[in-house]
Amino acid sequence: MKNIVGIFVLLLLWSCGNKENTTEENTTEATENVLKLSDEQLKAFSLTTVELQERTVTKTLKLNGTVDVPPQNLVSVSSALGGYVKSTKLLPGMHFRKGEVIAVMEDNQFIQLQQDYLTAKAQLQNAEAEYHRQKQLNQSKASSDKVYLQAKANYETLLISQKALEEKLWLIHINPFNVSVNNIKRTASVYAPFDGFVSQVFVNIGKYVSPSDVLFELVNPKDLHLNLKVFEKDWDKISIGQSLTAYTNSNPEKKYGGEIILIGKNISQDRAVEVHAHFTENNAKLIPGLYMNAEVPIPEIKALALPEESVVTFEGKHYVFEVLEKNSFRMTAVEIGSSGDGWIEIVNGNHLSGKKIAQKGAYTLLMALKNKAED
């Protein structure tokens, strides 16, 4: 606001000076890029000066991307043996707990599997007894080796069958030690493997699914990644372990900390490289596909720099005002580099070393100079 008032007062004084055409002290002379002000005009606005300084300029690299889920945290859930979906309450976006029943399957093969297990278990008891009996008889030569070996083979075959059937029952989450003649189930439950939320649901009650069909797609939010794009001109400034701050367009005030964990090695068609960052804290409001912005501070080498307000822009070029005398200023073109922390690098700043540069009020000087040039 003070800048605007200063510009207005300065231009007003300028106009009056031109109309009245009084003494040379009350006029402003412009020779190319040199501006000369009277004492009265100089008092109309605040002006401070600064000298070029060697500073470590920290550049803030602004990126954008989306929240992503690593493959190990995006889980497709299927039924090991297939069957009909008897019940499920899952909906996309719903949260669940590890060990919670997310679906109940029903099929005749579950009954058959338990029947086969109980049959093998009963036969194994008889085969084990026969095996030990033939072993004792064979040791005393009361039984031939052939009979003994046959009894041993029958016992081991049934033992293998029982163990295999046990594993199949465990696979559909039926405890084989709870299976009995009076406790045969026709259903099998599907349990949540971790705490998370549902990404997609592919089934409905009554639908038959095979073992290869996906029932649900579940997301483990404990290790969400931020997938960012870095253009090739900046990718070499990114390194693993760098910290960043991310935020959404809808709530830019809410900041999420992160750390770069992976840098891609391929450049896409839009000349960008993929960079993956890990969030330092889990947040339930972050979901896969969410668009986010990120700011990565990049420490630069020491360079000659000026405060950002000292550099003005006109017609796409950058300038500073060098103080020649108390009331005289020269607008000089400069090439800028990295910026951050309120400072900006002056790439070609050697010729300005030791000279006073306008800081506060530089924009007012620009407006005064250009206004004079238009008269």
From TrEMBL:
What NCBIfam families does the entry give? RND_mfp
Pfam families per the UniProt record, alphabetical: CzcB_C
- Ranges for the CzcB-like C-terminal circularly permuted SH3-like domain? 305-365
InterPro entries from the entry? CzcB_C (IPR058649), MFP_Cation_Efflux (IPR051909), RND_pump_MFP (IPR006143)
What residue ranges are annotated as transmembrane? none
Q: Which family does it belong to?
A: Belongs to the membrane fusion protein (MFP) (TC 8.A.1) family.
Keyword Manganese assigned? no
To which species is this protein native? Mycovorax composti
Question: Key word Transport present in the record?
Answer: yes
Q: What are the entry keywords? A: Coiled coil, Transport
Q: Lineage of this protein's species?
A: Bacteria, Pseudomonadati, Bacteroidota, Chitinophagia, Chitinophagales
Q: What is this protein called?
A: Cobalt-zinc-cadmium resistance protein CzcB
Segments forming a coiled coil: 110-137
